Amino acid sequence: MEHEATQLEKQHVHSVYESTASYFNDLQSKAWPRVRQFLLEQKPGSLIADIGCGTGKYLAVNSQVYNLGCDYCGPLVEISKKKDCEVLVCDNLNLPFRDQCFNTIISIGVIHHFSTKQRRIKAIKEMARVLMPGGQMMIYVWAMEQKNRRFEKQDVFVPWNRALCSRPFSESNQTGDKNELNAKNQDIHLQQFTGSECAYAVNPKLDFDSKHSHSTDHCLPGTCCMKMSEEENRFYRALGRSFRLWFFSRSLDESALRKQPEKVKQEKNIGRWTNSAISIQPSRHCSLDLGHPGPLLKERSLDDDEVFLESVSLGKAQWMAASNATRDLSGEQDIQSKHEETSSLSGLMEDKDCSCTCKKDEGDKSPASKLFKRTSTTDSTDSILDAAVTVGDQTTGTLDTKAFMRYYHVFREGELCCLVEENVHELQILSSCYDHGNWCIIAEKLGKSLQTEQHKNFKVA
Amino acid sequence: MKLLTHNLLTSHVRGLRPGGGYPLGIQATEVKLSPVDFNAQFVARMVPKVQWAALLQAAQSLGHGSDLPPEPAPGYESDEDFLRRLHHVLLEVEVVEGILRCPDSGHEFPITKGIPNMLLAEEET
Description:
By secondary structure, chain A is an alpha/beta fold. Chain A contains 15 helices and 10 strands. Chain A has helices spanning about 1-20, 35-40, 75-80, 115-130, 180-185, 230-245, 250-255, 265-275, 295-305, 325-330, 335-350, 370, 385, 415-425, 450-455, and strands spanning about 45-50, 65-70, 85-90, 100-110, 130-140, 155-160, 245-250, 405-410, 425-435, 440-445. Chain A is globular and about 45 Å long. Chain B has helices at about 5-10, 40-45, 50-60, 80-90; strands at about 25-35, 95-100, 110, 115. In chain B, a hairpin with a 2-residue loop joins strand 3 and strand 4. Chain B starts with a helix and ends in a 9-residue tail after the last strand. Chain B has a 4-stranded antiparallel beta sheet. Chain B is of the alpha+beta class. The longest helix of chain B is centred in the last third of the chain and has 13 residues, at about 80-90.
């Protein structure tokens, strides 16, 4: 499975970031406040690593510390370097640092790109390895539970589409003026969130044709409660259709469980998955008709655990058949129970039953269900949809014909905590919270530091 | 790549004996000097965190070996001359183009435009 995992990540994480790096404009993407605060609280003279630094927006927050950024993506690191940051290219799973050399580590929007639980654990363990005892680590991952909606499944492919890029809302924009926002509608040059901020991960069940345009949940920051123009309504509808084009996948962990009759087809499947990014099983059933968004949604809600399609421009309906081989494998099981089975498997894989002892921050204790009732004006990762309105008149015709699909494993509430508590015993979770559509934890490295004497005796070759 | 960064880097090629990947040898084809504001306290705090022998070796390979003593002397925290020289070596000397070589395996990691690339092929990890 390791090979499939690396292939999946190569195609749906690394190459997407490489190809889209030039569209990133760091001036526009702002640091999450909590992360900034965490960095600013670090002792002067600390050595801080940003693992998965992207364009380096956190590397210049605190000038009293030594900031070292690293990322798998060369082009992103080059952008960082242009801003005079100290950066390097490396793999989170094999960090090229000696043990216990950093005082502090941040991992913002990174772990959710690993396609198996084992790899996510390994990534966290590697970071713990290079952290000094007593040092702290902050991890942000995309949450399954978003502001008003949630992902249907945890393993998702999110299309990156240049036309859907938009300026993320910095805090200042929340009180910004409407005129400025409207002016942006004409802005052709679009910017893009990095990493997990890229929130076109919209629940396809969300119906953009409804009258929600006047609900505060979908108000644009800075234009709260403004009435939407007909143009914007049209755009939302178009966007809505395009957002239905992104998909869910069975996770690699789940696939590993369904080995039996698949063994024979294993080789072919892997090739198919990695090459075409379509179905991982031989395609058997539903071909989803692009021309009819209505039925598409309905169908999806039935077998979303098995549907995984490639997205192209709306102009050309190049839908490929989704697969549902597991249905065939299990024979007579109907769709409904298949769904349940998959869910329970997900539960198994994700340690649903673990008892987490991690504390949560005072203000953010709300369980996911309560979050849905919040009408917070702070932007969440899914406000990219709102932000996308600045695309303005862009019609569907201007969407790229190729949408890069980025893989994410979105985390349920408590999942990250459990992952660490059960598998990374050298870390102790200090706090956890929900922030801007992400689950966040701060953990401390336990243990004793390496003796200085050992290093003095070290013979230099 | 600054020498402070270099001091943290190790090779992680598969099969190395413990410590066999450190420190990386530097072979630089382009080095630049970038002024950085001097902060005595900051530099003093770096001293316990660096591997001194590795730093010396790195500095020597770039022609700055004579700037540093064989070991930090007691009371270094208030020795401004020492701190300034250390500041220079750690933070102002940058390798722009070159190679980092794993001592045990000989594996070479390139440095391009000041960015070390520490990725290994799948089979090497």
